[in-house]
Amino acid sequence: xxxxxxxxxxxxxxxxxxxxxxxxxxxxxxxxxxxxxxxxxxxxxxxxxxxxxxxxxxxxxxxxxxxxxxxxxxxxxxxxxxxxxxxxxxxxxxxxxxxxxxxxxxxxxxxxxxxxxxxxxxxxxxxxxxxxxxxxxxxxxxxxxxxxxxxxxxxxxxxxxxxxxxxxxxxxxxxxxxxxxxxxxxxxxxxxxxxxxxxxxxxxxxxxxxxxxxxxxxxxxxxxxxxxxxxxxxxxxxxxxxxxxxxxxxxxxxxxxxxxxxxxxxxxxxxxxxxxxxxxxxxxxxxxxxxxxxxxxxxxxxxxxxxxxxxxxxxxxxxxxxxxxxxxxxxxxxxxxxxxxxxxxxxxxxxxxxxxxxxxxxxx
Amino acid sequence: xxxxxxxxxxxxxxxxxxxxxxxxxxxxxxxxxxxxxxxxxxxxxxxxxxxxxxxxxxxxxxxxxxxxxxxxxxxxxxxxxxxxxxxxxxxxxxxxxxxxxxxxxxxxxxxxxxxxxxxxxxxxxxxxxxx
Lengths: 364, 131
Known about the structure:
CATH architecture of chain B: Beta Barrel
Strand order of the largest sheet of chain B: 1-2-3-9-8-5
Strand order of the largest sheet of chain A: 10-11-12-9-3-13
Largest interface: A-B, 15 and 13 residues
Largest sheet of chain B: 6 strands, antiparallel
Number of helices of chain A: 9
Oligomer: heterodimer
CATH topology of the domain at 7-46 and 140-233 in chain A: Gyrase A, domain 2
CATH superfamily of chain B: RNA polymerase II/Efflux pump adaptor protein, barrel-sandwich hybrid domain
Strand content of chain A: 25-35%
């Protein structure tokens, strides 16, 4: 099992550790539901050091990314601005979803998923030479996400102590979806919970003291369990569950991230997606709520009358709504009145627009 | 290591049984079971009057992580259920052996409890589970 630099810190906090892909990660530190509420109402932190930061540098790095990513980095005009994008294969399937930060005209930083990092890096290395771009894997950095309505307020003084007054002032001034960078520290006003907050990259040897300082400042350690229910409520996809190399983003609720314009920009997978759109009968990606008792789980089947019309791609219990919620992929002709097969029982579910909750309140 | 009281009997599927001494028993799931499941969010209880066989399904506990059947450790008639769990399933997380009890049974055959695991034997089950 791979371990992040915070592994022992998690164990010291009595975390329940589980295998997450190749990584030994904390699923909770006692109560997943309390951790979820801490992020919705106050501040929580997650060790996300298993995710991989990659720096791409070179004069033509923007051109490379305009070719490799389905969203268009031409949208990134201000230094520090971030963009969410899928990276596709030629068939229009999703290799990974990632965040790209525009640092300088010759430097873009990407943060990719843990389970896909190796193939992503290979993909970058395969295409980078055509553009004279260098690929630097930032194994030297750890990453902590501090999330919640009070997260910034609690994190900024600690950033000042660890990374200096300049970066902490820049961090305090960040607009949503922007990042600031110091010597080896990096602060992005981004996250995966639907709450305000930061994702902080730092040298490996600073991660444990920074984590402990945040803990002391009242930021609650949260595990992957809460991270999953938070992103689910916020309507954010999970790679490997909601989309993968066999799934088109058009059928994973990610159409909004695809930049087909300008027409003269070609990107990997564009042709395949256009063909797919012309063919029609695209599957629909939707939110699902169980009104009654029970919990929706990944891969449960959905029925319209007697006909199976799709399945749940990721599901769980929403602590905010106190109901089971899920994402589902349905055939184009699925109706509005659906049932889920839950251990042999057919229970009615409601189709809803994502996200389920915003700022701690139901919004579907 | 989770808590294992010395005055209860157990199953290898992580239920506990308290012999009430009048041919009735109280049944729940163990501290180890609730730790494995994580926060419980729903509990499907049996109904009073149900007749349940040993090893048969008596209900379901659903946590944030998984759904798990409650297998009845003994055979008999359900005489009482813990209604508090309908609105407060977290009682099982907080007090697995006390306020988190699930149902009570009138035993068909009082000798059936002799086949259950004593605390020492159950400790071995949990230790094997944790390695």
